[in-house]
Structure prediction request, 230 residues.
Amino acid sequence: MKKLWIDTETTGLSPIINDVVQVAGIIEINHQTVETFSIYSRPVDFINISPKALAVNGLTIEQMKGFAPAELAYNQFNKILSKYVDINNQYDRLIPCGHCVGFDMDFISAWSTKAENDNFLLHHNRLDLMSLVLTCKDLNIYSGHTTLTAICKWLGVELKNAHYALSDIIATRECYYKIIDIFQKRDIPMAVDSAILKTTCTGGSETSHTDKVNEAALKIQKKQKKVLWK
Prediction:
């Protein structure tokens, strides 16, 4: 199985008007890490940057102005992924994995549209740490908060520099496999199977949601008459 453990830092909560500013990932093939990366991307829209988002990720406007343009950053991201899939085989794709990974994938999808690059190399299915944590709650294994910080504290996983995307995704992956180990030690094979196969939404609804995000992003770009790559 080919997996992309992925986390993003953004300029807000909406992929329609906000942008990716950092994407970090771990590419894993058959449980072996083959590449780790972190990419910074200049926002397309500096008007709608949320001060709360900057307070969380610790970035400044001046720092972001120095990042690579979104088009170049996304192409770098796609170039890394293309080393591990056959781009001509629609079934050979990386499975996105993360904590509340639907949030990250909505932003990645909008990022690809803004970069005018539709060569999408990720599978529509997903693996989500949140699914495992909610299963633990259902089984009365865990009763705490579902934030990454709380989950790491519960599992004894070190989270260095929270909200730095690479640190977050390294911790997310470790938490995921620690919970899998808990299930195996408790002889709960069905929980393991359902967690591995469970997606955050169906392929059909995901496609529909992504289309809406992309269409809205394009409308905003056209309305504001922005020159994106200068």
Q: What stands out?
A: The first helix runs from residue 51 to 57. Confidence is low (pLDDT under 50) at residues 191-214, 220-230. Residues 2-128+201-224 form a domain with the Nucleotidyltransferase; domain 5 fold (CATH 3.30.420.10). The longest strand covers residues 20-29.
